[in-house]
Amino acid sequence: MTDQAFDLIVLGGGPGGYVAAIRAAQLGMKAAVVEREDLGGICLNWGCIPTKALLRTSEINQLLHNIGEFGFDAVEPRFNIDKVVKRSRAVAKQLSSGVAHLLRKNKVTVFDGAGKLAGKQTVSVSKDGKDVTTLKAQHIILATGARARQLPGIESDGKLIWSYKDAMVPPMLPKSLLVIGSGAIGIEFASFYLNMGAKVTVVEVLPRILAVEDEEISSFAHKAFEKQGMKIITGATVKAAKKGANNVTVTVEAGGKSQQITVDRVISAVGIVGNVENLGLEGTAVKVDRGHVVIDEYCRTGEPGVHAIGDLAGPPWLAHKASHEGVLCVEKIAGLNDVHPMDVLNIPGCTYCRPQVASVGLTEARAKEQGHEVKVGKFPFIGNGKAIAMGEPEGMIKTVFDGKTGELLGAHMVGAEVTEMIQGYTIARTLETTETELINTVFPHPTVSETMHEAVLDAYKRAIHF
CA of 439: how far to CAs of 434, 435, 457, in Å? Predict the structure, then answer.
């Protein structure tokens, strides 16, 4: 056991934790990261990055099976699921190694083990149940992330009922599967396996899929998925799952009626719960509410010197939200004068299904609920030359403005590459842009981004191409 002193200790090396540590080092602090598994956290190793590698493969698979539309003659393409998984894991490993390099470059000390609070300004580190060291710091950031929520009686077993981790490393491609939950995680896996050739059923307890999105965008995506062959059951609950030798029979109840669906595999994607256990919170003023640590606008907990960021601190459960919290938390600790609390409405959300979904700000319904007199603009991809040339005419852009002030209240998108385009509206909201600046902005032609301009114009009855 050795005592080591730092200015800042971060528990967790995910997208919130490692970014916080690097920013602290940039500001002249002596920083340490305690990570019990892989640097980069769930996002880089088992979430954001490897899933996008898988989804890219499924997009290519879908394109190859429709390559005749682009003038090619080709034999029936085949894929090797082992190679697909291997590429995904290699991408994650490459980036995890990159995080380790960045931490070394910034002289951040990394401790391999599990950290927990062990008294005032003290962190104990253990590995495999054995004490490794004791660390001291005036400031401690909890960034331990979250894990998949389990449904009682339908817990993942790694064989027939898969968690998100299991779904990323399938030993074979199931011919049929059922996904429980239609949030971003559930829909992305449903889209991946559908585009790889599996028969996919999605069960959602709420009245519609992608429930956090604008209702019109959600409906558009629903129809697009069904057109591709996905079966979607909303307003439904999974009552039981009976395992066979190599399949699962799931009992689904919807509208007062019950049905049994037999599939090769089940993917459970019903949300996450914060990793609040074994952090030494007992006897501290850190408050936990519904599985997440309670913080103020600067990520401070009720315990002096203890902060929390990322998934551990609650929704939205997004890597870029965690990274931004890490930066603002550290900058507040450092005493910078221009630190602003995070505006959750300026955090974009992206779902990398086919078609993609992206949004920022208020939905039309929420804007009306808040008393805004709204102006709504819409523009379909079918009216965009680049989208048609790409063979991606399925999509739409929707903008929501305050009718009195011209404030861009929200923007909602569904279609090819919209996850790359939403940043335009996000910047506009951060700059507090009104319709005047957006209307007078010159968008390049031919690009899919022109749909963004037209959707603004349409809100003010000025759309040209629709």
Answer: 9, 6, 6
Query: Phi and psi (nearest 5°) for 217?
Result: -70, -40
Supply 397's token pair: 């852009």
Query: Residues of the chain with pLDDT > 70: what percent?
Result: 99
Q: Which of 65, 101, 340, 445 is catalytic?
A: 445
Please write the tens of the pLDDT for every residue from 242-273.
Answer: 999 999 999 999 999 999 999 999 999 998 99
Distance of alpha carbon 263 from the chain centroid: 27
**The token pair that represents 168 in the structure block:** 């990323």
What are the angstrom distances between the C-alpha of 353 and each of 56, 182, 248, 265?
Answer: 10, 11, 25, 20
- In terms of DSSP bridges, do strands 356-361 and 231-233 run parallel, antiparallel, or are they unpaired? unpaired
CB 50, CB 167: distance < 8 Å: no
DSSP summary character for residue 354: S
DSSP string, 376-390: EEEEEGGG-HHHHHH
Report pLDDT digits (tens) over 156-202.
Answer: 999 999 999 999 999 999 999 999 999 999 999 999 999 999 999 99
Is residue 453 annotated as a catalytic residue, yes or no?
no
> Which residues are bridge partners to 281 per DSSP?
none
> Tokens in use for 245?
């030798």
The owner of tokens 């396996």 is: 193
Query: By the 8 A CB rule, do 317 and 272 touch?
Result: yes
Express each pLDDT in 378-429 by its tens digit. 999 999 999 999 999 999 999 999 999 999 999 999 999 999 999 999 999 9
Distance CA 26, CA 46 (A): 28
- pLDDT of residue 1 exceeding 50, the answer is no
Integer Cα distance of 359 and 429 in angstroms: 12
Sequence-ordered strand ranges (E) for 195-274: 199-203, 231-233, 236-243, 248-254, 257-263, 265-268, 272-274
Distance CA 446, CA 387 (A): 9
- With a cut of 50, say whether residue 144 has pLDDT above it: yes
The DSSP output letter for 407 is B
Q: CA-to-CA distance for 232 and 178, rounded, in angstroms?
A: 10
Alpha-helix residue ranges (DSSP H) falling in 47-200? 48-64, 81-105, 164-168, 184-195
Across 346-357, average pLDDT: 97
Give 292's strand partners. 289
Residue 300 DSSP one-character state: B
Encode pLDDT of 74-83 as tens digits.
Answer: 888 899 999 9
